[in-house]
Design brief:
34% of the residues lie in helices and 19% in strands. With 608 residues, the protein is of the alpha+beta class. The chain has three domains: 141 residues, 3-Layer(aba) Sandwich (Creatine Amidinohydrolase, Chain A, domain 1); 141 residues, 3-Layer(aba) Sandwich (Creatine Amidinohydrolase, Chain A, domain 1), CATH 3.40.350; 284 residues, Creatine Amidinohydrolase (Alpha-Beta Complex). A six-stranded mixed β-sheet has the order 4-3-2-1-5-6, sandwiched between helices. It has a six-stranded mixed β-sheet with strand order 12-11-10-8-13-14, sandwiched between helices. A four-stranded antiparallel β-sheet has the order 21-28-27-24. The longest helix is centred in the middle third of the chain and has 28 residues. The protein starts with 17 loop residues before the first helix and ends in a 6-residue tail after the last helix.
């Protein structure tokens, strides 16, 4: 692949056209539907959906990565979370739509409040999980409504220029980077299927499919996956349901050593045959579409809706994957530090825009000659744009980076040996005391997570508050999780591990997570500081419990001019100095002379 990997067109997909909503309402009325659910999803619940599946953006204009719309005859609401409550009103027609914070009002509860006896709610069973449909059914039937699956999505008939499904070629991931062969992975998966007393596992998450069979692809932007399904029986050969046009002869032969191949259109037929004898099939609760569960049950089988065991296996990186991640972060640290040195030299001249910064950072990464893709569209917000948590710069919104304001840049890279994600908040000119205080409080929360030591079995929810305490002390907070899981040359947002109020999965050695507390002052600026962490065993002299801690993988300096040492404790200052010393040690010999001179100043110890 080759860049550039991002464009700056206005991301609004034309959904401000009120005619689209009117035509959908007419189509629903013709089918006898009182309401219809439009999630931002494909058949795999992918974070980055292919253009073919961007129905929510086409209808509403909203392009965020998390959202769901509910359309009734006289009401239409877009639900999204705290990351997008500022972005959504800027993108959609507020005379047609209501924006609702999904963390405060559950969409299906809101819908039930707008229904009457006998109202029929339609949904596409390919685009909602069995778990979500069960919740929807409870809410709808409680008020006397009816739920109706609509496999032929009415939006597809209205969307005249809908792009075709992706057909990118897949490839084998380098066996020197996987750390485990396909047969060994399949043996572990079959053991897990047997322990769950299931007859087979339906793999609906393409990330899990790619991990299990050591494959990668380019069906969606920024994440190297191939879209498809797999059926892995407890005994016998697996079947991969991947469009044949994506597989050349050599790959077909390689895959056939471990599995049979079939077209995706035959999936439901195969599930019917497999379940007809009363077989018990595991359907992933996170990504398994309702139509999969429905097909198994209708055929006389048992649908065991629960976690795909591959998800946890994939999250626990093996030694080869960990070594690859360290190499990827070393390479990325060089590129990011070159960018930071360039920014420090160029920004004060007052000639830079957000797009200039995005392009330069991608250029620096491309010059490593190892960049396969960016991990996600770079978030580069100057001044008030930085307060939009998942801001995406366009030619229409592009802002000059002014003197005396903050600049937040959140970016990542996909290398064959690892996935990176880093956020730094920079300043041009002299920051205000308020900026320094807020930045330092965010940094204190970041350090608290990085230094955390905790017993095995601890969940992300149990340590999330550590990142928020310094902000809470000042009456502040942030409306997103503190950290998400990260894949190994897979998704930059990988479950099941996360550091958040909802992070209920125990953190295990080998998991990689982000550490990214923030603070956002609407209309003024945003601050976020992000490194990636590796969960590792931690020995404590005299300790009685098996303990864990974090290794910080990311290598790049923090913005010294925004640090207020007076707000830091002794151990916090020591952590920053030790981290900067490590950044200097790891990067100094790999950067050019100009960057090295800047890096030496950027990593010197804090003044007491």
């Amino acid at each position: 692949m080759s860049g550039p990997f991002q464009t700056f067109d206005d991301p609004v997909a034309g959904g401000r056209d009120p005619g689209r909503l009117a035509r959908l309402r007419a189509a629903l009325a013709s089918r006898g539907l009182s309401a219809f659910i439009i999630p931002r999803a494909d058949a795999h619940q992918s974070e980055y959906t292919p253009p073919h599946d961007e129905r929510l953006a086409w209808l509403t204009g909203f392009t965020g990565s998390a959202g769901l719309a509910v359309v009734l005859a006289r009401a239409a609401a877009l639900f999204t979370d705290g990351r997008y409550t500022l972005q959504a009103p800027q993108q959609i027609d507020m005379t047609q739509w209501q924006v609702v914070d999904s963390t405060r009002t559950r969409p299906f509860v809101w819908l039930a409040g707008h229904l009457g006896e006998g109202d029929v709610v339609g949904f596409d069973p390919w685009l909602m999980t069995a778990r979500d449909v069960a919740q929807l059914r409870r809410e709808v039937e409680t008020v006397g409504g009816l739920l109706q699956a609509v496999p032929d999505n009415p939006l597809d008939a209205l969307w005249e220029d809908q792009p075709p499904p992706p057909q990118a070629a897949l490839w084998a991931h380098d066996p020197d980077l996987t750390g485990e062969s396909v047969p060994d992975k399949l043996a572990r998966i079959r053991t897990a299927i047997g322990e769950a007393r299931c007859d087979a596992l339906v793999v609906s998450d393409p990330h899990n499919l790619c991990w299990a069979f050591n494959l990668r692809g380019a069906d969606v932007a920024h994440t190297p996956i191939v879209l498809g399904f797999a059926l892995i029986p407890a005994e016998g050969r697996p079947v991969l349901f991947i469009a044949g046009g994506k597989i050349d002869a050599a790959m077909r032969a390689a895959i056939s050593e471990h599995a049979d191949l079939a077209e995706p259109e035959t999936l439901l037929e195969t599930l019917t045959a497999r379940a007809s004898g009363g077989a018990k099939l595991r359907i992933d609760s996170a990504t398994g579409a309702e139509i999969l569960r429905e097909t198994v049950v209708r055929a006389g089988g048992e649908a065991d809706v629960a976690a795909d065991p591959i998800t946890l296996m994939k999250a626990r990186k093996n030694p080869v994957e960990i070594a690859g991640s360290r190499e990827a972060h070393l390479r990325d640290g060089v590129a990011v530090s070159r960018f930071l040195a360039w920014f420090a030299d160029t920004a004060p001249r007052g000639e830079l825009t957000e797009i200039d910064a995005v392009c330069k950072l991608e250029e620096m990464r491309a010059q490593t000659n190892a960049l396969v893709e960016i991990a996600f569209p770079t978030i580069a917000g100057a001044g008030p744009n930085g307060a939009i948590v998942h801001y995406r710069v366009s030619t229409q919104s592009n802002r000059a980076i002014g003197t005396g304001e903050l600049f937040l840049i959140d970016s990542g890279a996909q290398y064959n040996d690892g996935t990176t994600d880093i956020t730094r908040t920079l300043v041009t000119g002299e920051p205000t005391p308020e900026m320094r205080a807020h930045y330092t409080r965010v940094l204190k929360g970041h350090i608290a997570i990085a230094r955390a030591v905790f017993p095995k079995g601890t969940t992300g929810a149990q340590i999330d508050a550590l990142a928020r305490l310094p902000l809470w002390e000042a009456g502040l907070d942030f409306d997103h999780g503190t950290g998400h899981g990260v894949g190994s040359f897979l998704s930059v947002h990988e479950g099941p591990q996360r550091i958040s109020k909802a992070g209920n999965v125990a953190l295990d050695p080998g998991m990689i997570l982000s550490n990214e507390p923030g603070y956002y002052r609407a209309g003024s600026y945003g601050i976020r500081l992000e490194n990636l962490l590796l969960v590792e065993p931690r020995e404590i002299a005299g300790g009685e419990r098996e303990m864990l801690g974090f290794e910080t993988l990311t290598l790049a300096p923090f913005e010294r001019r925004l640090i207020e040492p007076a707000l830091l404790g002794r151990t916090e200052r020591a952590w920053i100095d030790a981290y900067h010393a490590r950044v200097w040690e790891k990067l100094a010999l790999s950067v050019d002379d100009a960057t090295r001179a800047w890096l030496e100043g950027a990593t010197r110890p804090l003044a007491v």
